[in-house]
Design goal:
two-stranded antiparallel ribbon; 2 domains; globular; 12% strand; alpha/beta; binds magnesium ion; 368 residues; AAA domain (Dynein-related subfamily); five-stranded parallel sheet; binds adenosine-5'-diphosphate
Length: 368
């Protein structure tokens, strides 16, 4: 959304999915002749195509947003058309937030009805709050009520999003139970309620690693269909994800395109995967894993950072020295233990690998 009175439309640092991919969504809407659930902008088929990519009959190319098993996307989209909410679960950096945003954009044309879950998320963020100036001036009434994003989604029949659900305190989480089971949000202060209209549903994301922080109550869990987002299955898939996303990010940062960077991307992905999995790609050498997650998302940041270095201080070609510092920063989170793990990996694996001499030298230089 652009604030009224500003003339910077289209200048948003990070446009919402529905704006960034407006042309794809429009083309899909035009091509889509399948039945749509109430208030959906697209049919489930077209939503899945938006996420997974494809070419439409009119020649429009829909870029893949999510790279992974087709079935995962199909189950996620289908869930949204049922009376159960969708819980996207996975380790950090598996595109939970990303998929949630694109699903909301494709289904409802609006990805902004968002509650960010933290340990301090209050009940008002999930239900409603009050505008105290109005409350004092006019007494309790609907005009004084400040609806939460969830309440707005219920009233409009659109998709609400809750990020990091398991970080929210248990009692606040539980205010979702009535919303998801009865599809209503009582306002006892006014003797009223807001009933969800058709088209309302909710997408929550939760981090695997947070398990036990604020475990979902079983009553709440039952309202959700859980879809687990896996790490990319192969190195090729992960390289593809990183390359695509870096290309998009680079364009939004006005960095020159760097197609020659693929070799470096492959290297970053290889290092991350080997350290994550505790074994080299050929299965021959065991390596220790550092404490960080080394997710795809972090690989994307390392490469984007490297590309910016290459553009501003190099000749625009992504080289080992541009990614080495970024890799070190991602791997060494705990200065003592992780540094040892990294040194060992460097000497035992990187040094011995054919064609990795420059990379080894660059890493040695920043690790010293
Ligand atoms: N399988 C995937 N397909 C497409 N993009 C991915 C995939 N895995 C990770 N990403 C990228 O990783 C980035 C971070 O993902 P994010 O949604 O923030 O992770 P999470 O919320 O799971 O921690 C996104 O920019 C996304 O493009
Ligand atoms: Mg997230």
């Amino acid at each position: 959304m652009t604030m009224p009175g500003t003339d910077t439309a289209g200048e948003a640092l990070r446009p919402h999915a529905e704006d960034a991919f407006a042309h794809e969504l429009k083309a899909l809407e035009a091509a889509d002749d399948r039945p749509r659930p109430a208030r959906w902008k697209l049919s489930p088929w077209a939503v899945a195509t938006y996420l997974l990519g494809g070419t439409l009959a009119d020649g429009t190319v829909v870029t893949p947003k999510y790279v992974g098993p087709r079935r995962i996307v199909e189950v996620a989209v289908t869930t949204l058309a049922t009376d159960r909410a969708l819980l996207l679960l996975g380790v950090p950096g598996t595109a939970k937030t990303w998929v949630s945003e694109h699903l909301a954009a494709a289904v409802s044309g609006d990805s902004t009805l968002l509650v960010q879950g933290t340990a301090g998320t209050p009940e008002e963020a999930v239900r409603y709050g009050w505008n105290y100036a109005r409350l004092l001036a006019h007494g309790p009434g609907r005009e004084a009520l400040v609806p939460s994003p969830v309440m707005r989604a219920m009233a409009e029949g659109s998709t609400a999003r809750v990020e990091e659900l398991t970080r929210i305190p248990a009692d606040v989480q539980d205010s979702l139970i009535t919303i998801l089971s009865e599809k209503t949000l009582p306002i006892p202060e006014l003797g009223q309620e807001v009933q969800a209209v058709r088209g309302f549903n909710l997408i929550a994301t939760a981090n695997d690693r947070d398990r036990g922080v604020n475990e979902l109550s079983s009553a709440l869990r039952r309202r959700f269909n859980t879809v687990v987002l896996p790490l990319p299955a192969t190195a090729d898939a992960e390289v593809d994800i990183v390359a695509r996303r870096v290309d998009q990010l680079g364009r939004s940062l006005d960095l020159p395109p760097a197609p020659e960077g693929l070799e470096e991307i492959r290297r970053v992905v290889t290092v991350f995967r080997e350290l994550r999995e505790g074994v080299t790609g050929d299965g021959r050498t065991k390596v220790k894993s550092p404490s960080g997650t080394l997710s795809t998302a972090e690989a994307i940041s390392v490469v984007t950072g490297g590309l910016a270095l290459a553009a501003h201080f190099g000749d625009g070609v992504l080289r080992p020295c541009d990614v080495a510092a970024g890799i070190l920063g991602a791997v060494v989170r705990d200065p003592a233990a992780d540094r040892l793990v990294w040194q060992e990996y460097l000497e035992a694996v990187v040094r011995e690998r054919d064609g990795w001499k420059d990379f080894y030298r660059a890493c040695r230089e920043v690790s010293a």
